[in-house]
Write a structure and sequence with these properties.
seven-stranded antiparallel beta sheet; 436 residues; alpha+beta; 19% strand
Length: 436
């Protein structure tokens, strides 16, 4: 570039000098060339071939235009660099003076007249200082809390935070324990359902034994033994009766035994009735009018060949099973009748009411005086199985006695209602025998 400029200047100088000297233009052009000092002093000049004047002017014009564009580009670059330098200088000045004269507005942004133009510097040094101050304060507070906690622990007292943490932990453990207990209860319930019949039989037997032992420990009051009492219902009314305090479980077989004494006519009435919701005649033993004694199960009837209207004590038993509705009737230890198809395949429903001396038209009430029992009852026991003939015979001849595993005859199990009904001691079993 500099060599071109130097050649151009030399050319202009020669032209101007020749025109100034008034020499005529001989049509020749000359160029300047640097010659070394040690070169030939004669400086021979090689003449350029003769050029066309129009082409030479065009070439010069193009060269001048290229030089002008180059200079303009350099100037533009210098101007851009100068603008960048000025912008950086301004930013540095703003950064240096921001600590003294910049403030946040209410919304936490810069003011309208002073905008943050640098995206790579903090928005406000005051923000950084406040952040550091808050961090220092937070660290100080945590240190004080730790010191306070150490003091509380050394003083044998727990801080509220630790106490709350322990309380939450205890609550979580309690919930887990309750959940575990519930799971165990569900498993227990499932096992209980699987063995409900066996469990109920065992519990009933144990309860009967416990009650009997309790009565024996109390001395039995005026009774010679806990079962040695009788229920007396001397009049045919609808307000004299006894009630068993316990109910029956679901049963697929049973045996009902009792000592009975009556001379009422016509018919002894209803010594026993068991009603459940929806069926007041679930189990009924009744003799009314001139009809024989009848056993009702789920309102189905079987006539029993029993005769107890002679005013003497008699031991009677009725056994039944849901399989084919098979039934047997015993009087004074002897089987007098049997049959089948009595409420076959019907299970005895649980949760009902047992009434002695009245027939229930609704569960636990609405008695009819014409169906009331007149006489005395004792040792009313119920088992959830069919007793063997030998077991029934041994109780009837007073050689043994064992209470029912579902309902046992105890003073605490029998409630008396109505003025004139009462419980009294019972004579010895041998005195109740027909040949006594």
């Amino acid at each position: 570039m500099f060599s071109v400029l130097f050649g151009l200047l030399c050319f202009c100088a020669l032209v101007c000098s020749r025109q100034a000297s008034g020499q005529p233009d001989d049509g020749k052009r000359y160029i300047c060339r640097a010659v070394p000092i040690s070169g030939d002093a004669s400086c021979p000049v090689t003449l350029l071939p003769e050029l066309n004047t129009g082409g030479q002017e065009e070439e010069l014009r193009n060269t001048v235009m290229q030089l002008r564009e180059t200079i303009l580009q350099q100037k533009e670059n210098i101007s851009k660099q100068q603008g960048t330098i000025n912008e950086l200088t301004t930013k540095l000045s703003l950064c240096a003076s921001a600590t003294d004269d910049r403030r946040y507005d209410k919304a936490g942004s810069w003011g309208k007249d002073k905008q943050n133009t640098m995206g790579d510097v903090p928005r406000d040094p005051n923000d950084t200082i406040d952040s550091l101050r808050k961090t220092m304060q937070g660290l100080k507070d945590r240190l004080e809390n730790l010191e306070q906690m150490r003091a509380n622990v050394s003083g044998a007292s727990f801080p509220s935070e630790l106490r709350d943490l322990l309380q939450r932990r205890l609550s979580q453990l309690e919930k887990q324990l309750l959940k575990k207990v519930n799971n165990l209860e569900e498993q227990k319930s499932m096992l209980s359902n699987a063995t409900a019949a066996y469990r109920m039989k065992t519990e009933s037997t144990l309860n009967a034994l416990v009650e009997r032992i309790s009565e024996l420990e109390k001395g039995g009051g005026d009774y010679k033994s806990p079962e040695q009492f009788k229920l007396s219902l001397p009049q045919r009314t609808n307000y004299l009766y006894g009630r068993i305090t316990k109910s029956l479980p679901e049963m697929y077989a049973f045996t009902l035994c009792m000592w009975i004494k009556s001379s009422a006519s016509p018919g002894i009435g209803t010594p026993f009735s068991y009603g459940v919701p929806g069926q007041a005649n679930e189990i009924v033993l009744i003799e009314w009018g001139n009809n024989p004694i009848e056993l009702l199960i789920n309102d189905k009837v079987a006539q029993l060949p029993l005769d107890v209207r002679d005013g003497r004590w008699h031991h009677i038993c009725m056994s039944w099973t849901t399989r084919d509705g098979q039934w047997d009737a015993y009087q004074d230890g002897e089987k007098l009748g049997s049959g089948d198809n009595l409420a076959a395949w019907h299970p005895i429903k649980p949760g009902g009411v047992i009434i002695l001396g009245q027939e229930q038209d609704v569960v636990g009430g609405r008695f009819d005086a014409g169906q009331a029992f007149v006489g005395e009852l004792s040792q009313v026991n119920i088992w959830d199985r069919v007793l063997k003939p030998a077991e029934i015979r041994s109780m009837a001849n007073c050689s043994s006695y064992f209470p029912g595993n579902v309902i046992s005859w105890l003073p605490s199990n029998v409630e008396v209602f109505g003025r004139g009904a009462f419980k009294r001691p019972l004579e010895m079993c041998q005195e109740r025998l027909p040949n006594a």
